[in-house]
Amino acid sequence: MIARLLIANRGEVAARIARTCDRLGIEYVTVSVAEDRELTYHAAAVSTVELPAGGHLDATALIRAATETGCDAVHPGYGFLSENAEFARAVRAAGLVFVGPSSRVIESMADKASARRVMAEAGVPVLPGTTHASDDIDALVEAAATIGYPLIVKPAGGGGGKGMSVLYSPNGLREALASASRTAIAAFADGRLHLERYVEHARHIEVQVFGDEFGGAVHLFDRDCSLQRRHQKVIEEAPAPRIPEPVRAAMSGAAVQGTKALQYVGAGTFEFLLVGDEFFFIEMNTRLQVEHTVTEEITGVDLVEWQVRVAAGEPLPAEQADITYSGASVQVRMYAEDPFRSFLPCPGELEVTHWPAVRVERAFTRSLRVTGGFDPMIAKLVATGATRDEALASARRASLDLRWTGISTNLGFAARVLAAPIVAAAEHDTAYLDRLDPVAEFGDPDAVAALAVAGALSAADRTTPWSAGAPGGDRAWLDPAGGDLGGIDLTVDGRPFTVRVSGYDGDTVLLRVDSDAAPVPVTRGEVAAPHSHPASSVLAVGGTTDAPAHSHRTHADRATGGRDSTRCVVTRQGAGWECQVAGVTREVRYAEYRALGGTSADPEIRSPMPGTLVRLLVESGAPVEEGQLLGVVEAMKLEHELTASHAGIVTVNAAEGAVVTTDQPLFLIEERGAAL
Question: Measured on CA atoms in the order 187, 437, 513, 452, is the torsion positive or negative?
Fold first, then answer.
């Protein structure tokens, strides 16, 4: 057995590996950059090696850390250098055990074109695509014409959906290739790409495999990873539902066949696209997967322990006939992002005030500084039940039960997806989340935030601090004469709303937002927990009474399954309020109402998120047209394009490569006459 292991990774996967090491009595060494110093897994490490920024991609620094601290093995986790053949080769050349397959296998599978070629020779069904990865844009454009459309662009050196894009015609191909290559270099230090025919309305099914150095190969059943957005997985489950048993058996058999053909040693994942009863190999991941947890839950197998034992030269711990599963498990990835604003990354200071009673994979106890330098995934919720329905319901409860402050996350959105009828019926495909408009489907959290704050201001007991600072005094905007009791003008992150009071019913105030005719009940809910901000209030927006389909109450109800209300936490922050609703955070302030109709376009183009201006495509004084691409901001491996809102003359307010903040004005577009 390995005696001392370097965990060459960070975050929740490092904590996951450390947990198995603790159970097996293996000493471990961790590595850390400035953002990682407070993470929990460092506490029990025999040593922690400080790395410079970007050190998780520095093979030389990681191997030096292992040798200088007396390690005899390196576990690469996932991401970073986990599928880097040169790193695996260098680890072994240094006399260390690499917890993973051989560099030869990593090399052949990391190049996705090569992987398809090898699998086709092994008799595994594959899709048409490029035969070799390349960073030559001209060669890739030529290959695209042969493959045909739609096609998908994939970085050759990594996974996780980073850098992938789908094109339905040659329009924008060169720009998509250049963007994908930049993202791949930043994420995997490898800018090569490959192209593949894109299959629409498919499901993404994985088969977990293991091999040992004695020629043994087994599978540990399958997972469904179809709930993904922009090719980044959001919710995964095991086993994959609604697959005919002959198809399931054929897919698992193909995965084991491929494993044996590779003489594969360690944990691996075969990824397939399933269309009807046909399946096609798309890639093999030569590492532990983010979603390995759901396989562990249904099989009772510690996959990290199997990795360590096989890497140490032991045979597989079980034969295929001895591997069984029971129940179902669902994993929800907690991302620092705002689903209602194009899923923009949301770095900041996170504080969790309550964890749900399910398996949670995390690397912190309560507080975490979420930076723009890493992937936006900050934790994983893993819920297991005797049936799929039980697991889905448990995952949804966990997503709603986790409570936090400081940033926006996707958990409210995930809870609503888990309640969607199409997901309950397992009829979704890989494009379902990309087709989904969160606001149209689940309601407008800005409007709900306006209602919640107005409801807090008009609290029936009048003993709360919410009315402090209300314009004109405590009840100035309320008319006690009856009927329509008046209104208040608010802005939610700068967006204007007028909320009018229609009446009271105990602790419930009836409100209308903007032009909606139907009143929305806002009820004071549970008392704020002791760890909450002293000026916090929990309110329920909506209810179970009937209302016209166009009302915001109906939107709030639909957001959580059709009959329950939307829970909001309102906290006094200086001159305004912070409202957390549907998993996202909104700043609410008093304002003079400004009509949206008929106003001219905003002359300033602002950064939607903190990040780096990685591309600048215009110069000050140049004429631009509406929709023209001005620049690209990157954060958390996500690129966001900034386009002109209208025609005019542009003034550039930041240099390429500049670090920018949310709402920082980057471009000013004036009418052509005004700029002369």
Answer: negative
Q: Is there a contact between 13 and 78 (Cβ–Cβ < 8 Å)?
A: yes
* Structure confidence at residue 528 (pLDDT): 40
Q: What's the confidence (pLDDT) of residue 288?
A: 97
Q: Cis omega before residue 239 (within 30°)?
A: yes
Give the up-direction half-sphere exposure of residue 184: CA atoms within 13 A in the CB hemisphere: 27
State residue 596's pLDDT score.
29
As a whole number of angstroms, the distance between CA 100 and CA 137 comes to 32
Residues of the chain with pLDDT under 50: 460-484, 527-534, 544-563, 592-600, 674-676
Residue type, position 534, single letter: P
Distance between first and last Cα of the chain: 76
Residue 458: per-residue pLDDT: 66
Residues paired with 214 in a beta bridge: none
Lookup result for tokens 């915001």: 552
- Rounded CA-CA distance 511/524 in Å is 13
Convert 539-581 into a string of H (helix), E (strand) and C (coil): EEECCCCCCCCCCHHHHHHHHCCCCCCEEEEEEEECCEEEEEE
The pLDDT score that the predictor gives to residue 506 is 64
d(Cα 563, Cα 195) in Å, to the nearest integer?
45
Which H or E element spans position 405? Answer: strand 403-405
Q: Which residues lie across from 367 on neighbouring strands?
A: 351
Task: Count the Cβ atoms, other than its own, within 10 Å of residue 128.
Answer: 14
Handedness of CA 77, 83, 87, 88 (dihedral sign): positive
For 56-95, the DSSP string reads GG-HHHHHHHHHHTT-SEEE--SSTTTT-HHHHHHHHHTT
